[in-house]
Each structure stands twice: as C-alpha cells, then as structure tokens.
Input
Amino acid sequence: MPILHGRNPHDAGMPMNTDSTARLLFPAIRWDEAQGFDGSRSEIDAALALGVGGFILFGGTADAVASLTAELHRRSRHPLLIGADLERGAGQQFGGATPLPPLAVFGALNEPALSRRAGAVTAREARALGVNWVYAPVADLDVEPENPIVGTRAFGRDPVKVATHVRAWIEGCREGGALACAKHFPGHGRTTTDSHLGLPRVNAPRSTLETDLTPFRAAIETGVEAIMTAHVAYPALDPSGLPATLSPAILGDLLRGELGHEGLVVTDALIMKGVLADAGEGEAAIRALEAGCDALLYPRQLEPTLEAVRGAVGGRLPRTRIEEAVGRVAAAAERAAGSVAAGSGGDDAAWALDVAVRGVYAVRGDPRCAGEVEVLVVDDDVGGPFPLDIPRDVFADTLAAQGVVVHSVDRPTGDRPLVMALFSDIRGFKGRPGVSAEARRRVEAAASSAPATVVLFGPPRLAAEVGAPAVLCAWGGEPLMQRAAALWLSR
Output
C-alpha cells in the first residue's frame, strides 16, 4: 500500500508559516573540482536559513558528500530530504561509491533479482553518504528511437517487463533504507524533444498512453514513496496542452484519483525549458503546486521563487493545498530519518562489474581484439552546459591491463587491427539521439582502412547507423562499461 500520505503527525496542528512553505523547495548543490562544495557556501547558508525541505546533490567525493550531508542534517531545523539522480548507482554521482550499469542492461538480462539488488546497493550506499532520497528508478518505456533523453536509462520497451523491474528496484531501494522516486510520470518514452531544451508534446491516444502507465501502476502498487513528473504535454490526457508538471488533470484526476498515488509528487528540475516555456520560475512553481506537486526540485532563483509562492498562498494557492504539500514533505522526511539501511550484500563492486560484463553483447558480426591493436576514440557526447568529466581512456587502459598491446591513435595506420570506441550516450541537454554525421564519417573512414571492431558505448539500436562489420554493444560510456567491454573483448 502507499506509504506516505496525509500530514506529518509531528506537525499536527502546525500553523502555516513562511518557514513551512520553504520546505517545498529543494535547491541544487553542485560539486566544483576547484572549490569542492565551498563554492556553494553562501547559497547553502541562505537555503538553510530559509528552511528548505532538502537539496539535490550533483557530484563530489564520497568523503566530501558525507561531510556535507552531516552538516546539512545537523544545521537544519527539521529533518531533510537529500536526494540525487542515482539511476546508475551511487557511483553515478559520487566518487568512491559503486557505479552500476544503465537500467537497460538489467532489463536486457531480465533477472528481477538483479534489479532488486541494484536498488538495494544504490540505497545502502546513498544512506551511508547521508543521501536518503533516490531519484530512480526510471519507469519510462524505451519505445521511440528518436527519443533524445530516455534510451538506456529505461529498463526496456515491454511494459510488463519494465513494470516487473521497476517493482523489484523499488523493493530493493526500500531494503537499502532510502526513499525511491519513479519517473517521469506519465511517461517520457514517446518524446522526440529533450525537455531540458523545450516542451515535448506526445500526441498518442489515451489507449497508447495506458501502456506507458503500466510501470507507474506497478510502482504505486509497490508503495513507491514519490513520483517525479514529466515536463511533457499529453493532449489525450489534458487537452489544454499543459505539461504534466502543471496539469491538474494529469496529477489530480489521473495520478491521485485514478491511480491512487498517495505519496509525494515532485517536479522534474525547474531549470528545464519544458516547464519554463511560457513562464518564469516563480510562476511555474505556483502552477506546479496548483496542479498537485508537493516538492519543487532545483529552483535556481530560490528566494524570488519562495516569495512568489508565499504571495500566492491564500489566493491562487489555497492554504489547505500548501499544508497538504508540506505535510507530505514532512512525513517523507520523518520516514527517511527513521529508516535503517540493510547490511552489505557482499562485494558490490565485483557484482556490478560482473553484471556489466554479462550485459555486453555482439550486435553485429564477430567483435574481436587481437593481441596488439590500435584504439581510436570517437566521442559524440560533447556539448551541453555542464562539462563532460567522464574519462575516455578507461577502455584502452583495461585492455592493456589484460595484456593487450594498445596503440592509441587519432587515425588508423592500417598496420594493425583497429578497435574504435564510439561514445554516443543519452545525455541531458545534448538535444539529439543517434550518431552525428561527423562521428559516422569518422567511423566509416577508419573502418575502410583497417579490419575494425566498433565498441558502441550507447544504445544498441545505434548499430544500424555505424558502418563497420563488427559492433559490440556496451550500452553507456561510464568507466564501468568501458571496463566491462574491454574485459569482454580480452577474455
């Protein structure tokens, strides 16, 4: 049954005040390689003084994150929800934690016990670092080849299979002691626009969208503690064309009413153009609360946005709506503070690598690695407002560690077999799926000059865009998958 509902019993009779309104806001704290978290010190102090409900963290070493969250929890006047995007394990964000393969790997292996352990490992490590709210699992379906933002983040395209893995992941996360958050309701899988960059519109009929709701129904039946909204318009669900985040029909009638979700509803990030298409951040925050959201994630203009919300209370925003939202945030924070992480499941890093290697597979031809090879990196993942700080040399280094003589080259000489590492992953703000024309040209030119194997660090469907006789799918470009591909080739 749903776990979070009503008001926090500790807040029973709590008067509405500006401090409690601030609990609806969850600003971001980003790690800076030069300054660590100290570069955000003034913003952190201001947020705590306002009484925000928590934070979303991006990056940092495990030690620095643990130190920061301990301080945040200690200084806050109330229990905090501290969240992070950990779809690929705590190691996705935090150095020193265990990285996991993309969810698509778990879907391809189709062993729900693996997904359950993934949720447990993620939650347990997050809790050890003071993070108690995990923005995962992705419950979207990977059904649209031109989708620039879902792809390997999803368990797959089959709704029943995806629902099974969503359920297992949530159960594991609960065992690990953190709150889960299924996303992006009512389904981001049919979009062809990145909602970071604009407002996607899905014109599918309700009968088709019902398929997309299957994993969310499973999440709600499992008692998922929170659901994140999509900054996407669905005319079949709301003819007004509002994105789900701002739609009373989608969040009230469908999510709360028809599907029966009683837990938290949290917006996707408020910095995204999909929710800011025709309004500023303050207005978007008010509309989100009007529609039924309880938590406002990643406001960039914290104090002006809070003042806008405060100004709407008692007018556009009934006091009871704010009390309801604050009550859900408070109840979730109390639950997170009282939960206990499960014990270790063994060597999680070794387990994660084993799953990653098992997930790598030949999409086309007979991918091989000779005892001496040239390695050419084709990186198609550059761009966007945030630096791409994922190393690209792990693949070649792992091959070398396995005894392969590796020559890293900018162009093949034709003297040795060639292995191309093609990085073409799903990234926010990248704005496109697929392999760019320039990357395709480089791959095809290189493959024409030497016997070539392409290692595709991206969705397997992109193999159709790659002109090479042998293609190995490694799903994503993070170091774990680079190691896994190298181990697969050198075994």
Observations:
- Residues 319-338 form the longest helix (20 residues).
- Residues 360-490 form a domain with the Rossmann fold fold (CATH 3.40.50.1700).
